[in-house]
Amino acid sequence: MARVVVVDDEPMVCVFLRTILDSAEDLEVVDEAHDGAAGVEAVRRSRPDVVLMDLRMPGMDGLTAIERINELAEPPNIVVLTTFDADQYVLRALRAGATGFLVKSTPPEELIGLVRTAAQGHTVLSPSAARRLIAASTDSLSARDRARELVAALTEREVQVLAGLGEGLSNAQIAARLFLSEATIKGYVSRMLDKLGCVNRTQAGLLAHDAGIVGTP
After folding, report:
1. Domain end point (choices 83, 115, 135)
2. Domain boundary among 135, 163, 184
3. 82 with 104: CB under 8 angstroms?
4. Is 167 within 8 Å of 214 (Cβ atoms)?
5. Are 85 and 103 contacting, i.e. CB atoms less than 8 angstroms apart?
6. Domain HTH luxR-type: where (predicted)?
7. Fewer CB within 10 Å, N or C, the chain?
8. Nearest of 198, 96, 202, 207 to residue 159 by alpha carbon
């Protein structure tokens, strides 16, 4: 059973999400909050697997809440809730450690599957939105310089694995590409996240695009 916390300043949105997610046998909304500060406390209290986080809220906004949650020991996977399919604020949230984002108009049957995906630690991001976010991420010269400096400290094999993350590949797909075991790739990813200072695969994938290594053979 994957435990979910919903953080949104619109009570009806929380009710809608609770109704949809609780209808799945393997998902349970265990808590909700209506601003960022209360969301952080809900995470501390309920220890969920997934947080669905609105960004634009009164008081503490979602971006600050994401940063605070990722400072906790063993933080949950955080998925941004938005009415837009891509903007700079969402990009900032991904850089802060969100694992992806969902548009609030996502059909209920798709929502359940995407939350399951997030609970497993995978990126939740539509392909069209991903293209726009990646384009936005590479517009910043400072981001490119910082990314290239971090990647320069990686081994050749680690760069190849990072390029796979930038393409959104799973560990199994990267392993098949590099003729290595999935367990070996899992080890590379874990060590690489530490080296890069990334909290998850999504953040590392954005860094790969910033550094211009996606598609590295």
Report:
1. 135
2. 135
3. yes
4. yes
5. yes
6. 147-212
7. C
8. 207
Q: Please check whether residues 204 and 160 belong to one and the same domain.
A: yes
Question: Residues 159, 125: one domain?
Answer: no
Report the C-alpha gap between 93 and 81 in whole angstroms.
11
pTM of the predicted model as reported, rounded to 2 decimal places: 0.71
- Residues 51 and 31: their CA atoms lie apart, in Å, by 10
Number of domains in the chain: 2
Q: Are residues 26 and 80 in the same domain?
A: yes
β-bridge mates for residue 53, sequence order: 7, 80
CATH of the domain at 163: 1.10.10.10
Burial (Cβ within 10 Å: 0-12, 13-18, ≥19) of residue 165: buried
Q: What does the pLDDT look like over 11-62, one tens digit per residue? A: 999 999 999 999 999 999 999 999 999 999 999 999 999 999 998 898 999 9
Interval 57-92: pLDDT, tens:
989 999 999 999 999 988 999 999 887 655 667 778
Q: Which residue type is seen at 191?
A: R
In what helix (H) or strand (E) does residue 53 lie, and over which residues does it extend?
A: strand 50-54
Residues 129 and 197 in one domain: no
Asked if residues 117 and 196 have their Cβ atoms less than 8 Å apart, the reply is: no
